[in-house]
Amino acid sequence: MSMNSEGRPTTPNAVTTDEHKYESFSGHVGLRLAEPLIFEIGSKDRTGVDVEEVEGFVSNLGALERTGGTGCPGLAEPDVVRHYTRLSRRNYGIDMGVFPLGSCTMKHNPRLNEKMARLPGFGDIHPLQPQSTVQGALGLMEELSHWLMELTGMPAVALSPKAGAHGELCGIMAIRKALEARGDAREVILCPESAHGTNPATAAFCGYKVKSIPGKANGRVDIEALKAALDDTVAAVMVTNPNTCGLFEDEVREIADAIHAAGALFYCDGANFNAIVGKARPGDLGVDAMHINLHKTFSTPHGGGGPGSGPVVFSDRLKDHVPLPYVVKTADGLSFKEHLDGDNDPSFGRLVAFHGQMGMYVRALSYMLSHGVDGCRQASEDAVLNANYIKACLDDLMTVSFEGPCMHEVLFDDEFLKGTGVTTLDFAKAMIDEGYHPMTMYFPLVVHGAMLVEPTESESKYNLDQFIRSMRGLATAAKAGETNRFIGAPYFAPWKRLDETQAARNPVLRWSPEAEAAE
Q1: Using CA atoms, how far apart are residues 258 and 109, in angstroms rounded to an integer?
Q2: Which residues constitute the domain of residue 437?
Q3: Domain annotation covers residue 209
Q4: CATH code for the domain of 317
């Protein structure tokens, strides 16, 4: 085994498919401790807190008073701390290493943003507080709105949507309101075949029929097919730009002109705005509505079901139809407009009960102000540079799906694995043994065995080079016939290859002693 200058093995975790000759009595592997469910280690007869019975206490809950236990496990305080600390060491995140999920932008979250989000007046306000007591928060929301409109070249914005898909819903509802206002009943929305799955889902949810538009061999929208599908039944076209193949729709102005000439409206999926901030403004490209995933473009936390934020910007064609509530200036300061001004109010109505995620607004504005316009532009440039660097370093061993430069993510397919017995899933699982979260697999659907890699601007050349070396090593091993290295991977993760199909179709969501005993 080769050693480095510090006397450490250069390959301390060389992949092997041999079974261990013995298992530890504890179930631990070295200092990587085994961790059962908290229900398995808890007991009803112990707890970290002793609460004495209160003499003379009479409950006023009546029939609502609990008569049995809560079913929660009882643990001593150190057991609770150790349990969750051990779990945290098994949770891979952006603070652990490269997170190359394509189209998801798992980027570094600067700690400055977190500090600002916890400032008194931001981190401790309540949605039912009098608006006179939250003027600073409303001012921040107004400032964020200004910069979102400035960066997109759009005259209006709704901050209230809670995520990208919610933003799509907001945009399509505004489009429907605009069409209704002009007495134009249209029933079809066009979606390119490379669209995010939420696009056709949103259109269908709003009652529209969805018609798919094919792509060209270069991975972009077939504009001739799009033009042929445009008629007086089409309400809108939903296009992702940069698109899900990691490419910029270079005919976007012609697409917008064709859409508007047909009396329809242009919805842009802004999930990939991270690639063009400071470089191109969607409003200048003819877009009428676009959601912005703050967690993808402006670094706020991503994943785990929230907290999310998906503001939507609107063109002049739609600015009067933005949803309630939104911030307005009055003689007494800033406040929310929360109610329609009669039946003739052009807004499509109230989208949410409360306005949105305050912490997300603070983080996003902190990111913008700390970077400045030039810094935001450089972030986009670096994201595109990093993706193209990965592409250039791997295209001799892996199959790049489309020729030419990519944007902020590079798309590979499984052609280079043909005849090896290794699938995209096997390759991705082997990446876990290398210490990397797998890239996005099998998406977009227009490419067979897709592997979508997005490094973002956050990764240094040092980290990219390590990632590239691992990817080249895996590709070489697959082509050399080292199939066993892949088909059982991951070998070094706390949990080995799982039956993902069964986990998705028959998830076990509740632990019970009976189920544990049966197992």
Answers
A1: 39
A2: 373-496
A3: yes
A4: 3.40.640.10
Q: Which two tokens stand for residue 126?
A: 């309540």
Contact 236, 172 (CB under 8 A): yes
Backbone angles phi, psi at 265, to 5 degrees: -120, 155
Q: Are residues 344 and 399 in the same domain?
A: no
Whether residue 28 lies inside any domain: the answer is no
- Specify if 46 maps to a domain: no
Do 265 and 229 share a domain, yes or no?
yes
- Closest Cα to residue 179, out of 62, 341, 288, 18? 288
| 473 in any annotated domain | yes
Give yes or no: residues 308 and 182 share one domain. yes
Which of 232, 228, 238 has its CA nearest to residue 206?
238
Classify 152 as helix, strand or coil. helix
Pair 353, 329 in one domain:
yes
State how many domains the chain has.
Answer: 2
Looking at the fold, whether 349 and 306 belong to one and the same domain comes out as: yes
What order do you get walking across the sheet with 410-413 strand by strand? 399-400, 410-413, 451-453, 440-441
Residue 313 shares a structural domain with residue 431: no
Is there a single domain that holds both residue 384 and residue 362? no
The pLDDT profile of the chain, 519 residues, written as one tens digit per residue, is 454 444 444 444 444 445 444 666 667 767 777 788 888 887 777 676 777 888 888 889 999 988 887 778 888 888 889 999 988 888 888 888 888 998 888 888 899 999 999 999 999 999 889 999 999 999 999 999 999 999 999 999 999 999 889 999 999 999 999 999 999 989 999 999 988 889 999 999 999 999 999 999 999 999 999 999 999 999 999 999 999 999 999 999 999 999 999 999 999 999 999 999 999 999 999 999 999 999 889 988 775 555 679 999 999 999 999 999 999 999 989 999 999 998 889 999 999 988 878 999 999 999 999 999 999 999 999 999 999 999 999 999 999 999 999 999 999 999 999 999 999 999 999 999 998 999 999 999 899 999 999 999 999 999 999 999 999 999 999 999 999 999 989 988 877 888 888 889 998 888 777 655 555
Return the residue matching tokens 């099998």: 442
CA angle 206/207/208 to nearest 5° reads 100
In which residue are the tokens 């001004």 written? 341
Global pTM reads 0.88
Q: Are residues 363 and 410 in the same domain?
A: no
SS3 184: coil
